[in-house]
Amino acid sequence: MNDMRAQLAIVLLLIVSSVCLAPDRAQPDLLLFHGHVITMDPTAPSAQAIAIAGDRIIWVGTDAAAQKLFPSVKNKVDLHRATALPGIIDAHTHLFELGKSLLRLNLKGVATEEEAVARVRERVRSVPPGEWILGWGWDEGKWAAHYPDNDALSRAAPNNPVYLVGLHSFAAWANKRALAIAGVTATTKDPDNGRIVRDEKSGEPTGILLNRAQELVESHVPAMSLEQTKKAIELAAQECVRNGLTSVHEARVSPVMIQAYRELLREDRLPLRIFAMLDGADPALVQEWLSRGPEIDPTHRLTIRAFKLFADGALGSRGAALLAPYSEAPQTKGVVTTPQAAIYDLTRRSLEKGFQVCTHAIGDGANHFTLDAYAQALRETPSAHDPRLRIEHAQVLAAEDIPRFAQLGVIPSMQPTHCTSDMGWAEKRVGAERVKGAYAWQSLLKTHVHLPLSSDFPGETLNPFYGIYAAITRQDIQGNPAGGWYPEQRLTLDEALRGYTREGAYAEFEEKEKGALQSGKLADLIVIDKDITQLESRPKEILSIRVLKTFIGGKLVFDGSAPSRQGP
Ligand SMILES: [Zn+2]
Q: Over the stretch 390-437, which tens digit does the pLDDT of each residue have?
């Protein structure tokens, strides 16, 4: 830069900064005060008041200063010393799946056949004849000693196919109409790994389908319409904001989901911010988006700039691809679902076009070859600017692969509750040596990676405080095992909070927009009923934290502190 230009730049900088510091600053539309504000801004970690104009935070500071600066704000909210945090960014979710489960008839906790049938009878009243009634949640484990048949179920819904999946998805219960549509009769053979439960005398199917036999009926359940998809996503988004989530990274997005997001946004029915990972296994979708390029939303509502791939399966079912055989199943090393060459190929093409790639990798083998694929693609695309490639889960890592994340700038995107859900059997799968690289949050952090945290709901709860609890304890909610499972990998409360705020923002290229409560950032924040910073030594109390308010872009999208509505 020559001297003249440098001087001009300095003058401009002075003008800009004097404008920002001018005393007659913009007046806020909304002032939150009397709060215990945890900003997640290391330069000013706590505050009492937040001023918001439009969808942005314009000022953060003390009550006394707020009084002086903004004496005449009309819209003020007294936080009554409650704690405010940046809105939670859940970096790996399945919003649509959550929504589907919310749309189905909920049979969780139903104790008897009569009760389940009564709920179906109730539902029949609001559903046109012929439409499927889908339910979920009857306990196939508890009911296994005496499964019902479908006589009562069929009488309750003679004109609607009914299909009710068990709590753990190992069994389903179908009425006669559903079996007829699927063509399941006395002569239908049991599929591999499945059983059609039959009447002992007549041989007729009773309606109970075990394991893979469920697919005989499931394959006839019609795909959801656009309207149903929108309804599902809307319900799930409401559930998210109730739980303090303000942004989600949706893992694997299909064309109908994109259309649903767009229409919901237009209809002002989607309060949540969405960072979508396109389904990288859909070649037409990949082609379409690679040719049109990323869609980065200037309003930060819906950004589409990533592809999701699957390198392997899950550890529990021995589908995770390991470098060496499973410790308790020496005949298998797991399953590779997308080979290294294909991951390399999509990554290289994505880097050229400015897309991020997020690859599901659970086993140390899958992580190893995904890192290799990323390394090659990065090497061959030196023009790629700030790529932030991600590995989703990064669950079991070989010791030599841990430092490669930081070296390559690859983001491990991890789920604290996966650790606490799996810790009862994970060591059996991989043995005492490899388990040291499992859910190895602290080993990764020591190498200075970005570590976004997430829930992977609905497989796990979407309540982020369960995730924070799991991250800092590595214990189940009863507090077992004492001291935590491989406690050297625990996170501090600050690291966990960072994972659910700033690091989530970084993982979606939005660290300048959100993840901390600072002037200039989007006004995404939550108010909670306990001071979480006092609970590191009493972590169980974190589990009962309630969200009182959720603001997204300065708008109150959930108010749990309002008195609950009375019946009609
Ligand atoms: Zn997932």
A: 999 999 999 999 999 999 999 999 999 999 999 999 999 999 999 999
CA of 313 from ligand 1 middle (Å) equals 11
Q: How many residues does the chain have?
A: 568
Query: How remote is the CA of residue 280 from the centroid of ligand 1, in Å?
Result: 14
Distance CA 309, CA 248 (A): 18
**CA dist., res. 319 & res. 426, Å (int):** 13
Band of pLDDT at residue 1, cut at 50, 70 and 90: very low
Cα of 92 to ligand 1 centre, how many Å? 6
CB 234 within 8 A of CB 264: yes
Confidence check: pLDDT of 149 > 80: yes
Residue 257 has pLDDT above 70, yes or no: yes
Q: How far is the CA of 125 from the centre of ligand 1 (A)?
A: 35
Q: Taking 60 as the threshold, does the pLDDT of residue 568 lie above it?
A: no
Distance CA 514, CA 303 (A): 14
DSSP designation for 491: P
Rounded distance from Cα 543 to ligand 1 centre (Å) = 23
For residue 295, the cross-strand partners are: 304
How far is the centre of ligand 1, averaged over its atoms, from the C-alpha of 83 (Å)? 30
Left if phi > 0, otherwise alpha if psi is -120 to 50, otherwise beta: which for 373? alpha
- CA 252 to centroid of ligand 1, rounded, Å: 8
Assess contact for 249 and 507: CB atoms under 8 A. yes
- 253 neighbors 286 (Cβ within 8 angstroms): no
Tell me the CA–centroid distance for residue 99 and ligand 1, in Å.
15
In the reported structure, the alpha carbon of residue 402 is separated from the centroid of ligand 1 by a whole-number distance in angstroms of: 22
Query: Cα(184) to centroid of ligand 1, in Å?
Result: 33
Which pTM value belongs to this model? 0.86
pLDDT exceeds cutoff 50 at 16: no
Cα-to-centroid distance, 145 and ligand 1 (Å): 33
Question: How is 62-74 classified by DSSP, letter by letter?
Answer: -HHHHHHH-TT-S
What's the pLDDT score for residue 8? 53
Average pLDDT over residues 382-395: 96
Q: Output the CA 283–ligand 1 centroid distance in Å.
A: 20
8 Å CB contact between 40 and 498: yes
Residues 6+ apart with CB under 8 A from 78: 33, 34
Which residues are paired to 525 by β-bridges?
86, 551
362, amino acid identity: I
Give Cβ neighbours of residue 422 (< 8 Å, ≥ 6 apart): 315, 316, 395, 439
Task: Give 467 Cα–ligand 1 centroid separation in angstroms.
Answer: 15
Amino acid at 66: A
